[in-house]
Amino acid sequence: MKLFYTRPSPYARKARAAALELGLEDRVELVEVTTLTHPTNNIPELLRENPLQKVPVLIAEDRQRLFDSVVIAEYLDALAGGTLFPKDGRRWPSLKLHALAQGIMDAGVAVRLESLRPEDKRWDNWMEAHLRKVTNGLDAVDAEPDLLDGPFNVGHLALACAIEWLAFRTVYSESEEGRPRLAAWFADVRERPSLIATRPV
After folding, report:
1. Beta carbons within 10 angstroms of residue 179's beta carbon
2. pTM for the full model?
3. How far is residue 52's CA from residue 26's CA, in Å, rounded to a whole number?
4. Exposure of 15 by Cβ count < 10 A (0-12 exposed, 13-18 middle, 19+ buried)?
5. What does the pLDDT read at residue 36?
6. Is 129 left (phi over 0), alpha (psi -120 to 50) or beta?
7. Cα(139)–Cα(117) distance, rounded to whole angstroms?
8. How far apart are CA 40 and CA 33, in angstroms?
9. Averages of pLDDT over each 10 residues, the chain, 201 residues
10. What does the pLDDT read at residue 54?
11. Per-residue b/e over 115-138, b at no fewer than 16 CB within 10 Å?
12. CA distance 147 to 179
């Protein structure tokens, strides 16, 4: 299998960390895309693998191409017989947390892309609206600590990737401030080997 990724991408990181969590690192060849995956950039080698020209992309064992980090993570989980996607009563809380974390990521990326525009062309209200989504999402997680309970799952993985990416890109560095339950959980989870090995640079 081949996994196309960029190091800074929180989405690609989720797929890379999933492979490590599931013990599949020896079966997944990492292919780093070094061109900036900005919406305005044309990257022919990535377009060949994904018509949306985004990372991550997994060329699976049967040669099909899978896009989107959650699809890739679920494929790897099924392949390994893993527990990132619970089959019991934890399934829906884990997917709910994943949806919150993914929304936080998406809103953070929107802020980041807007911040790269020339200052006189930035839409401040747009950035503020997306930052509210980030803070509202984090507040919702802290207010519902049951989402953080149980064995490590895809929701936990996505949330950890979101929090570290927000700080890495200086979009929002206060994820843990005023959110004691989230802070306590993250202090422990961030030391998982899969997350240490895939930290954005």
Report:
1. 18
2. 0.93
3. 27
4. buried
5. 61
6. alpha
7. 29
8. 15
9. 94 98 97 72 71 88 93 97 95 98 98 94 96 98 95 98 97 95 97 97 84
10. 84
11. eeeeeeeeeeeebeebbebbbebb
12. 14
The DSSP line for 83-109 is SSS-SSTTHHHHHHHHHHHHHHHHHHH
What is the pLDDT, as a whole number, of residue 34? 77
pLDDT for 44:
72
Count of alpha carbons within 13 angstroms of residue 157, beta-carbon side:
29
- Which residue, 72, 128, 132, 134, is CA-closest to 103? 134
How many residues comprise the chain?
201
Residue 93 structure tokens: 């809380």
187 DSSP 8-state letter: H
Output the pLDDT for position 39: 61
Cα 86 off chain centre by = 18
Q: Are the beta carbons of 55 and 46 closer than 8 angstroms?
A: yes
pLDDT of residue 150: 93
> What backbone torsions phi and psi does residue 75 show, to the nearest 5 degrees?
-60, -50
| Residue 121: alpha-carbon gap to chain centroid | 28
